[in-house]
Amino acid sequence: MMIVDALSWVLLVGGSLLCVVGGLGLLRLPDVYTRAHAAGINDTLGSWAILLGLMLQAGLGLVTVKLAMIGLFMALVGPVSSHALLKAAYAHGVRVQSSDEEPADVD
Amino acid sequence: MPRILSSLLVLVVAWGLWSGHGEPLIVGFGALSCLAVFGISRRMDRVVGEQPLDYGLALRSLGYLPWLLLQIVKSNLDVARLIVGSAPTVHSHLIRVQADQATELGRVIYANSITLTPGTITLDLRGQDLLVHALTRSAAEGVQEGEMGRRVSRLEGQG
Predict the structure, then answer these.
(1) Residues B10 and B31 in one domain
(2) What percent of chain B has pLDDT over 70?
(3) CB contact, 8 Å: A65 with chain B?
(4) What Rg value do the Cα atoms of chain B yield, rounded?
């Protein structure tokens, strides 16, 4: 079980690092549009890696099924929330900086 | 009828996996809540219209999801590298992308797949037009190149 343990820790530490990088992105990137991409790291690979690491710790059983369901919900809800956030920002006139063109309005 | 059976089956299996309990009282509550959710979702059919039931889609998604997962991993690492780089070189801009999937469901899957990969987020889906915000030029090129759109078209089986 050494290998499973090692893999699980690689995933847990890697996922945590990705989440820290996502948080760093929130601070370093300039505006709401670019920051949403940084948050996307936490929504996807960061949280999935942590969940997968936890599944390896839990072994085959109901706990693993629940962790998988959480991952599925993250995959369905993450894009919807980023989309809603940026669409709201765009509709309320937050400019996209350094953009080449401004396509028509969104309401 | 297959519709009713399959949605009840999904609810019962989901309840069983979440709870893991076997006492008669708890199972009774579970049965009641399954019936309640079933009733509510039947009512929802009247609001949004009956959605087509497509078992083939679930099968074909077994080919699509691993590819999508690989793209998500790749673009996650791209964005992470950009963030920790000495000076983040972003080229924040909007692009228009054509979503020529035949069904509404196909276009929504495409829009959500674009958003799921960090570096690109779909702002709007109107008819066949997607408005996408891209973090970098290469992220934008990745979408415009169209591989994902073709794979989603194949996923929906064109109608």
Answers:
(1) yes
(2) 94
(3) yes
(4) 20
**Chain A CB contacts of B73 below 8 Å:** 45
Q: Are B36 and B86 part of one and the same domain?
A: no
State whether A106 and B20 contact (CB < 8 Å): no
Q: Which of A26, A28, A35, A37 to mutate to test the interface with B (most CBs of B within 10 A)?
A: A37
For residue A69, how many other CB atoms are within 10 A of its CB?
A: 14
Strand order in the sheet with B120-126: B93-98, B129-134, B120-126
Residue linked to tokens 């948080």: A23
Q: What's the domain count of chain B?
A: 2
pLDDT tens track, chain A, 107 positions: 788 999 999 999 999 999 999 999 998 888 888 889 898 899 889 999 999 999 999 988 888 989 999 999 988 898 899 999 999 998 888 888 764 444 444 44
Under 8 Å between Cβ of A48 and A72: no
Closest Cβ opposite residue A82 in set B20, B115, B124? B115
Q: What is the pLDDT of residues B15-32, one digit of tens each?
A: 888 887 788 899 999 999
Work out the minimum CA distance from A1 to partner chain B, whole angstroms. 26
Question: Nearest residue on chain B to A70, judged by CA atoms?
Answer: B18
B65 and B7 belong to one structural domain: no
Helix, strand and coil in chain A, % to nearest 5: 80, 0, 20
Give the range of the structural domain holding residue B60, as residue numbers without chain letter: 55-156
pLDDT digits (tens, 9 = 90+) for B118-154: 889 999 888 888 899 998 888 888 888 888 988 998 8
Asked if A34 reaches chain B (Cβ–Cβ under 8 Å), the answer is yes
